[in-house]
Amino acid sequence: MDAFFNSLRSMPLRRGPGRLAGGVAGGIAYKFGWDVTLVRIALLLSFLLPVMGIAAYILAWILIPAQDNTIILQNWLRKF
Known about the structure:
- 59% of the residues lie in helices and 0% in strands.
- By secondary structure, the chain is mainly alpha-helical.
């Protein structure tokens, strides 16, 4: 499992430090140089799709490393 999480850490995408919820919108906006408000609006609009938007956000939240390289899923799995 460490190889999987190390490959996630090698991606240039990180959850943003200025977060409202999980930091996913801030990380995406920072990576691509977009306005964070527009990314948040796009994410909220994606939540109107049945289950797809919320599931994608939760998946991104638990898999995208934070600024300090911690991955939520890896931390959860270490507890078991």
